[in-house]
Every structure is written in structure tokens, then in C-alpha cells.
Amino acid sequence: MSYTENEQRNLQTVRDALAEAARDFTIFFERIFAPDCTWTIAGHGPVARTYEGMQDLFENAEADLFARFAEPLAIKAIGTWADGDEVFARIQSTSRAIDGAPYANEYMYIMTMRDGKVVSGIEWLDLDAYYDIVGRIRL
Fold first, then answer.
1. What range does the domain containing 65 cover?
2. Residue 36 binned pLDDT confidence (cut-offs 50, 70, 90)
3. How many whole angstroms separate alpha carbon 98 and alpha carbon 109?
4. What would the pLDDT profile of 57-83 be if each residue is shown by its tens digit?
5. Whole-number Å distance between alpha carbons of 52 and 129
6. pLDDT tens digits for 76-87?
7. 85 in any annotated domain
8. Which of 26, 33, 100, 118 is most buried, with most CB under 10 Å away?
9. CATH number at residue 126
């Protein structure tokens, strides 16, 4: 597949950030997400909504999940593609919960890029896996 110069640049930015975050998914967000990024978690339940900024996302969705891990969330990029200002990424993740049980999930991200940063996007994931660990482990 051939990409424009802008698409190649955006794609490389995302690929580099995913590679850097292979052992800790939080690095991916820190590296390329704009602080005021609008991010949507698709689906149903309490965390499925649009978040206004990374602080909102981490305080109201990610913190509950990451607090239940005994080790950082490792990721593997399965595929990345670009179309205009959007980059698509299919990602798998694994970790171990503080109760010793394994955690695994898969994600599909569509990220809108501007000046090398993600400014908005949407993700699909297995919310059952998220709700299971959050419901199973009481902090």
C-alpha cells in the first residue's frame, strides 16, 4: 500500500510509540497523545463514553484498570494503517493481575493526528475483560 508523505509520517509516529511502549502501554499515551485529546471508548457500561483530555481518561477509566495490575501492561502491535490524518492500530495486551490471574485484551484504535500528536480518536476493546478485573479485585 502506498501512503502520502503525511500518512507515512503519522504512521511512523504511531509505530515508533507502539514499539517504545511494548513493555508498558502507558508510554504510548504519554509519547503521542495531546493532553487535550478527545478520546472515545466504544461500547456499553460506565467507562464507555467520550473523555475530554488525557487526565479525564486516566482518572475515570485507566486508573481503575492499571491499579489492578501486578506488572505493566505489555502490548504488541498486530497491524497499523493510515488514511489521511487517521492512523488505525490493532493492538494486543497482556499483564498479570494482583490476584495472580492473567489479563489479556485486544484493541482497535482509530486516531486522528495533528502535528505528530493524537488529537482525537476512538477505541474498541473487550470491555468484558476490563469489567471482570475491575469487579473481581476490590482495592
1. 5-134
2. very high
3. 27
4. 999 999 999 999 999 999 999 999 999
5. 24
6. 999 999 999 999
7. yes
8. 118
9. 3.10.450.50
95: nearest Cα among 124, 67, 120, 57:
67
List of long-range contacts for 76-81, beta carbons under 8 Å, 24+ apart: 76/22, 77/15, 77/18, 77/19, 78/106, 80/11, 80/14, 80/15, 80/18, 81/1, 81/11
Q: What single letter denotes the amino acid at residue 128? A: D
In this prediction, residue 1 carries a pLDDT of 78
Contact 13, 34 (CB under 8 A): no
> Going edge to edge, which strands form the sheet with 117-125?
50-52, 33-41, 117-125, 102-114, 86-96, 74-83
Q: How many residues does the chain have?
A: 139
Q: Report the number of distinct structural domains present in the chain.
A: 1
Angle 76-33-10 from CA coordinates, rounded to 5°: 70
Residue 127 counted as domain residue? yes
